[in-house]
């Protein structure tokens, strides 16, 4: 096959793939009286959480005679890095496609570096300098790693709490099954290997001793009388197993030779690892400093080295090029990529700056505080961001995973996981932080999913910690707080709204991960802040909904005063007095929902309700209950400028924007021969045509004038496309293309593309029309011109697989007269024609 034919086939395929990816406007009741504004195409803004890397673990090894550190930074995808510790430089980096992060690395005896990332076990060779996916692990998350003397790898997982063995010589995978197998969600969170046995730390207090030959399992942790996660587990000197429980922060020592627990308890230990002993001393972090236990006397001592973080990996290395580090030093890496050396000879901490390239974290929550301040939190990261829509810039500040953001009394509040704390900043005095921790909820609460305010108080809804049921409503008056747990027995609070002195709440039957629901139906409740008591509790009665497992979030209708909420794919309004459903609409059937999904709701200034349901954003008219799909996203906010700011559905590290045009004034621009009255003058065919896949100017039908363009496409592996001469555009402008379309059959499309001066495509938007046969209809699509935009083209199109017989007439192109914001920059860039 010749090059030109191959190219044509590729163009057909790319065009088909793009248009098949389009969502065809999921809209209820749209038409001439469409109540909704116009929406421009998505515009990429920036990656706001891109100032520092996010790192969970590292492991030291030897490569080409040098001490090196292996680590992985969180991102889309995660990036594996090799750092030369002797010369302190970044040697190489590799993308781990399909993975977002890694919680553990292990260096095997044969030198292979094993990486547990995503759902894959990866291997890095210090000889070939390559990373290879070794085995797909059939679990959602990989949490723990260990290696044996044969360089086989062992992987601990969630949600089934399994251990797998990867055989280095054969590449085979062995499944040892669940380590406990008592409930639906279980973890193997920590793990190490010793002489034919895996020791697996679970989330349910047990430490399972697994015989890797027979598969026999024994719990050795029963004498400890502990609860919760065995978060850390390491074997030192081939004899002593160190295990730390995250709830109590107690670390215990098990003598593998004597098969018994020592009468020693290390308290308030931070974790996350220990290394082999140096001069019979094993070092750990506790009480904000580096401490040790002497394995000869089992006496606990401490160094003069302060350290308030944790050991993300712990290995002994000798750095010959730094006189500050005589002898051996304990090396670890910090959350933000700094490399830390603990030198016990000098009792000093030497910190090297991060040389790991920043990788953008995934956006968690987005909150618009003012016209120039949008706050953004990340997932399992240590950084938040302040975004300025006016300048399209972002600044970062230290912040954990905030699952809710709210403003009250001139301050911004963050509900931070995993410590279940409320943190705050002054957006006027210190808009980019630092944040201040006000209090921690305690009471086994760690995820804060809802906040509202009223009557001079802040109300907080939360979810219990791992393995626990019973969320809480917390009330804060600016000075003190009270936690009211189990407002609805054994349920978590995920929605809150305040109206006329009352707090309206909604729940989910689910608690922390690893817990088993005790109820079968979520509830709506009313709380009296004066009496500090629940006054009403009821289920949600909507035809077709059944008994919902979660209800949330709640918001007060600005015009009707109803309590609006959502559950599964339904959006509803409640009478605040009776809690009866006044109206409801099913927007999405069977949306993708998690255990704690609090469907985010926001009201526009014009009184429309925006609902993020199952990763899809809709706008809803609260009067008629008509609705319209806008974009795929997990998180969004309405800016004070009225536009939509959201995380991209296909890459949540990217903040994007959709311009909302409430009352657009459009200026018509020149399109050469828009109605084909001059034949094909001003129009060009993109592809070769033939019998059964062709176009022609015809007088068979017309909307205006005498002629129109007919596309006849009866081949499923062909595309027919005709495009206009260039139409000048300006960067950052908002434009709208339209066409009059008469469909005899099939699914024709209107396509708009924008190019730079060199003819490189910068952006595209399309509408594939699937209804309205045997009548003329006007089809419109808005597109945002990115930076460097020079011109646009309009396309009459039938894609592969689209089988079309349709007439196109009266093309038009408009520019929005209103000037776009200065901050509107960038664009969703797509490859292909």
Automatic annotation (TrEMBL):
Key word Hydrolase present: yes
Keyword presence, Hydrolase: yes
UniProt cross-references to Pfam families, sorted A to Z: CBM_4_9 (PF02018)
Top-level taxon of origin: Bacteria
Alphabetized InterPro entries for the sequence: CenC_carb-bd, Galactose-bd-like_sf, Quino_amine_DH_bsu, Quinoprotein_ADH-like_sf, WD40/YVTN_repeat-like_dom_sf
Source organism of this protein record: Caldibacillus debilis
Residue intervals of the CBM-cenC domain: 670-789
Keywords, sorted A to Z: Hydrolase, Signal
Signal peptide bounds: 1-29
GO molecular function: hydrolase activity, acting on glycosyl bonds
Full protein name: CBM-cenC domain-containing protein
